[in-house]
Structures are given as structure tokens and as C-alpha cells.
Specification:
6-stranded mixed sheet, Protein-Tyrosine Phosphatase, Chain A, 16 helices, 19 strands, 433 residues, alpha/beta
């Protein structure tokens, strides 16, 4: 079956599903394969659960005409999304970067939703499967879309751009994330820069943080003509200054030559300053009033363990353990250092996907953590444990060991930074606090 023929079926059945546990009536089930599963085996179950059609790439599972056979299910999903994107005559904002992608995406959505029917990537559906699913979730009544794009190797962002075809885009930053797959920090720069490459060739618009010299240089190197700048300098389209950072950020901002406004956020951490500025810039670019922009900034409540403040009867917890890399670790420690609290405790878990740089990057973060003002410094994971022996620190090989130790020596009346890679499962410690 051709992509065009499949698209006609999709238009009549616009719900896509890849998990038989989440089947909706009259959806299309795409039988994706993985390293340890074969979606073809679940095609019949999907039909019995209410799917209108099952798209498969193994003919032996086709029982009747409700089973559509294609050469490769994943490629068919991607091509279907690519075709659907061509039918959408709306702005599509592509977002990538080492840190802050999801927070920026949610802030921008909150702002733009004050005026537009806005779609944004749900959760972390930002890879070669998630981006097509996101594009295919955009309905005809949508006025603007925000697509988050993640990557852990070069050419991935270029591929995702070929599907999502962003008309606008921004890179949050270039940091030490996925160093193993990218082959070092220069590889990250090249990989994330593929968004700029796409927008340069397509004549798209880039929202540029002019306070970030790396991003400014990347834009200059590519000769990007359509850039909309934001930052602390008065020459920017949107100029901003930090007004207050405790407990949450508030920002003075204005368009060039216009009166100043104040945006009050529910986000802690000075590292969120750039994310808020980006949302203000994009809202202003799409002609939202300052009142609507500020309302959108204030409406966003951080969730999903990203910059989330949790108050318990005994402690204040900075929940930032959705993911971690050296760059995000460093700014989290800076933020804890700047936080006004009588007692501070830092609990850091290992950072994953750092390859040959792992030992050195963990050592550098450990050294920075030892200089951070804190009553207790706790390090969890195999990489940090290799550095055991330094004074004024506790080391545990895994989260289970840390849980046992913390249960014996509880933390009370403190501000706690809880940060590590998702695989460390630091959320299992929450009940102790």
C-alpha cells in the first residue's frame, strides 16, 4: 500500500496507537518492532480491542483486509507523518538542545495557548517514533505547533526535521549530554546545529539566545538571516533582566524601545531564566499582548520532576531527577548554592551516556559539589562510588543502599537537591523526606 493510500485511511481514522494496552476505538495500530518485541504478534489483539486497522510488515499475521501489509511499519509511520505535515499550513516551532527542551516547550505552549489553539509534543515523544506520532496528532483546527526533538547522535535532528519541517526553531543550549553517542562536545554542537542547517536552507526563522556565545557563533557561521534575538542586551527583540530568583523567578522584560513588563513564574533556578525569555520572545513574535504573555508564564506549573518544588512536613525538595548530564548538574548546583536556606542537602546520582568522558565528568561534578554549601553531600551510583574516600561526603553504590542509609540518618528541616539520570530511580527516596 502506498503512503497516499494509507493517508486516506488515516484521515478517516486519525488516531494512531502503537501499544495494545492503549487502543482506542477505530484507531490505526502500527505494529512496530523493537529489540525485544515484535508488534506484528499483537496485531490481532489490537483489532479485537477496537482498532480499525493494523499496519503490519509480516504477512503471516494478516487475517483479513483489516490488516494492512507494508514493507516496514516504522518507515510507513514516518512517511505518513511527513505527508501529513505537508498538509498543515501552520507555523511549526522545532525545539532541540542539551538541556531545557521540555521546560521551554511547556512554557511556550502555555504562552501561545493564551491566544492560539496550540499543539505541543506530549511528554518526551521527541525521537524517531515520537516525532511522527506528534505530527500525526496535529488536527485541522490547530493554529500553531511546537515539536520537541531529541537526539543522541549526529544526523538525528536532520532526520526529524525532514519529518516535522519546522518553519521556526530554537536551540536551548549546547551542553555535555549524550557525549557517548555524539562523540564529544563538538559532536553535540554539530548534531544540534542540524536544526539551524535546516532552517537556513528552508528560509525559516530562528529564535536566538544572544547571551549564549556558542549559539550566536553557530548562527553566524551559517549566515542565518532570519534570527529573532532575546537576552539581556538592549539590542535584542526582547530584552530581559532577572528581577528576583527566590523562591521562583520573576523577570523584567520589554520589546525594543517599549515600556517594561514583569513576568512572574513558578519556576525555581536561575538556569530557567533563558527558558522564560525564549517563551516571552516567541509570544511577542506572534503578536501576543504583554498581558497574555505574562499570564502564560505564570500559568505554567513545573511537573514531571523537572525543576519541581515539593514541600513536605519536614523538608523542601528540589525534584530534578528526570534526567541529568554534566551541564544540567552544574547549573543545579549553582542554583542550590544561591538558594536562601538554613540547611541544604545535595543528593546526586550517576549521569549516563557519557562514554569515555564519564569518569572525568563525574570527578568534575564531585569537585564542584564539594564546594557547594551543604550540610550533607550524598553521591549515588557506580561512577560516583569510584571516587569514594573524600571527606564530607557519603557514597553509595546504588539507590537501595542510599535508601537504607538515609532511613537510619534522616534528613529534616532542609532544602534537598535531588538530581541524577532517570535510570538511577531517585524518586524511590522521596518517602524518606
Amino acid at each position: 500500500m502506498t503512503t497516499e493510500q494509507l493517508y486516506k485511511i488515516y484521515l478517516k481514522n486519525p488516531q494512531i496507537c502503537t501499544d495494545t494496552r492503549k487502543i482506542t476505538a477505530s484507531c490505526l495500530f502500527f505494529a512496530l518492532r523493537g529489540d525485544h518485541f515484535d508488534g506484528n504478534k499483537f496485531a490481532q489483539q489490537a483489532i479485537e480491542s477496537g482498532a480499525a486497522y493494523a499496519i503490519i510488515d509480516d504477512a503471516k499475521y494478516a487475517l483479513d483486509d483489516r490488516f494492512i501489509i507494508v514493507q516496514d511499519v516504522l518507515e510507513s509511520l514516518q512517511e505518513l507523518a511527513r505527508l501529513h505535515r505537508k498538509q498543515l499550513n501552520i507555523p511549526v516551532i522545532g525545539i532541540t538542545g542539551s538541556n531545557g527542551k521540555t521546560t521551554s516547550k511547556e512554557l511556550i505552549k502555555s504562552v501561545l495557548s493564551q491566544h492560539f489553539n496550540t499543539f505541543a509534543t506530549e511528554g518526551n515523544l521527541n525521537n524517531h517514533i515520537g516525532v511522527p506520532l506528534s505530527i500525526l496528532s496535529i488536527t485541522s483546527d490547530c493554529e500553531i505547533a511546537i515539536i520537541e526533538m531529541g537526539a543522541n547522535h549526529q544526523r538525528e535532528i536532520a532526520f526529524l526535521c525532514s519529518i516535522s519541517q519546522p518553519s521556526h526553531g530554537m536551540i536551548t543550549n549546547i551542553g555535555k549530554a549524550h557525549l557517548e553517542g555524539f562523540g564529544g562536545i563538538q559532536g553535540v554542537r554539530i548534531g544540534k546545529g542540524e536544526l539551524y542547517e535546516f532552517l537556513y536552507k528552508s528560509g525559516g526563522t530562528v529564535f536566538l539566545n544572544n547571551d549564549d556565545q556558542t549559539l550566536s557563533n553557530m548562527a553566524l557561521e551559517r549566515g542565518l538571516a532570519n534570527t529573532i534575538g532575546y537576552g539581556t542586551g538592549d539590542h535584542n527583540f526582547v530584552s530581559a533582566r532577572l528581577k528576583n530568583s527566590s523562591p521562583c523567578l520573576s523577570i523584567d522584560w520589554n520589546l525594543s524601545g517599549e515600556p517594561k513588563h514583569v513576568a512572574f513564574s513558578n519556576l525555581p533556578g536561575i538556569y530557567n531564566f533563558d527558558n522564560i525569555c525564549a517563551a516571552i520572545c516567541i509570544g511577542s513574535y506572534f503578536n501576543l499582548s504583554p498581558e497574555k504573555i505574562n499570564k502564560g508564564i505564570n500559568a505554567y506549573q513545573p511537573l514531571n520532576n523537572r525543576s519541581q518544588i515539593l514541600e513536605t512536613p519536614n523538608n523542601t525538595i528540589i525534584c530534578d531527577y528526570y534526567n541529568a548530564n554534566p551541564s544540567s548538574m552544574a547549573v543545579a548546583l549553582d542554583n542550590l548554592n544561591a538558594t536562601d536556606a538554613t540547611s541544604k542537602v545535595l543528593i546526586l546520582g550517576d549521569m549516563f551516556e557519557l562514554g569515555k568522558e564519564s569518569a572525568n565528568e563525574h570527578r568534575l561534578i564531585l569537585e564542584k559539589a564539594l564546594l557547594t554549601k551543604a550540610e550533607r553531600r550524598i553521591f549515588i551510583g557506580e561512577e560516583f562510588y569510584k571516587l569514594k574516600g573524600l571527606e564530607d561526603a557519603e557514597f553509595y553504590k546504588n539507590t537501595s543502599q542510599a535508601l537504607e542509609a538515609l532511613n537510619q540518618h534522616k534528613v529534616k528541616q532542609s532544602t534537598i537537591l535531588l538530581k541524577g539520570s532517570r535510570g538511577m530511580k531517585l524518586e524511590s527516596l522521596l518517602n524518606l523526606f
